[in-house]
Design brief:
This protein is α+β, with helices and mostly antiparallel strands. It is 18% helix and 32% strand. The strands form 8 sheets. A 6-stranded mixed beta sheet has the order 7-4-6-5-9-8, with no helix packed on it. A 6-stranded mixed beta sheet has the order 16-13-17-21-20-18, with helices on both faces. Strands 19, 22, 24, 25, 26 and 28 form a 6-stranded mixed beta sheet that branches.
Amino acid sequence: MAGEGGQDLTVETARARLLASVSPVVGTERLLLAQAVGRVLAEPVVAPFALPREDHSALDGYALCGSDATVDRRLRIIGRALAGAPWSGTVAPGTCLRLMTGAVMPAGADTVIAQESVQVGDGWITLQSGLEAGENVRRAGEDLPEGREAVPAGRSLDARQIALVAALGIGVVTVVRPVRVGILSTGSELRPFGEALAPGDLYDSNRPMLAALLQRPVVALEDLGSVPDDPRQLAARLGQGADLDLLIASGGVSVGEADWVRPVLAEMGHLDFWRVAIKPGRPLAFGRLGRSWFLGLPGNPVSAYVTFQLFVLPVLERLAGMPVRPPVSLRAPLLAPLRHRPGRTSFLRARWERADEGAWGVFPFPGQGSAMLSSLAQADCLIELPADRATFEVGESVKVWRLPS
């Protein structure tokens, strides 16, 4: 078992191992389009007709025959068309039709000249510029031909896809059922809100944080509460999540005397790995519990947040049937020198700032302890430091991960 008494897994190896193990959940449901925002299509949406269905004017102007589209050509106005109010006649050479943006092109006409490009008289226009035949016309099917796949299966629906599906007159879509995710905090020191704290006690911040991170349309969340550092109580509470799709626990995954998650998981199910060469967040347990996949995150809140972004999120995307997106990262100059101990990839909380000379860079917070929530709350990015180097100078380009707002 990698990570068990041997070399820690790299971030890349751990992510690959996770994604190779899990597969999308089975099951679909039919939803009204207005209720499907953020959900993942289980079946593609195919265009029942072309978009647009007919040739339309792309601007306010005059429809005419392409052979008449020459400078100083004088044309008689024979009618008027609006979007939603077509004209039923035919435009012959020497004539034109007044029409507005979106109006259906009349028979005989194949070109539209902008209203600013003509001189209008009493029932006549004179072209003040020439144009190519076919200009300023939206052709039938140029946006989407009939029978073409409009939105593929596996796409999470946002406002853009909703608009396209609505334009096709489709009001109900088939989506992947939500991923059933449970969250659990472990630790005898944890107390719920409102309860007085004894010396050494802490309010549980991980579970509310994870619940907030999991507020997604593709997730059906189940809160399993918190459990003290007792193997019997832990086993009972883990058993309550064995029928979920994914169970996420925080705390108790290291090697301390009170860390029971690994041995209990190994006894009740299967433990794949539990150590990754990152800081913060080295202890990370992954395995199987009943029909549920299990991810045990570190107890320190910053470690839990970072490991969620690195490992839980791609697993969730895979379970939901979405394409697993690569992390959003870029390179930027450091605004302060950095040191870290080689051997593990470090992820440091930082914020974007403008340097004295006006260029933007990233400034790492001085306090990087894995229990320091204030810097996490203020950070808008993470700086990734590779495991094979110790020092990084001001102005040096580093890899930066944007944090979701």
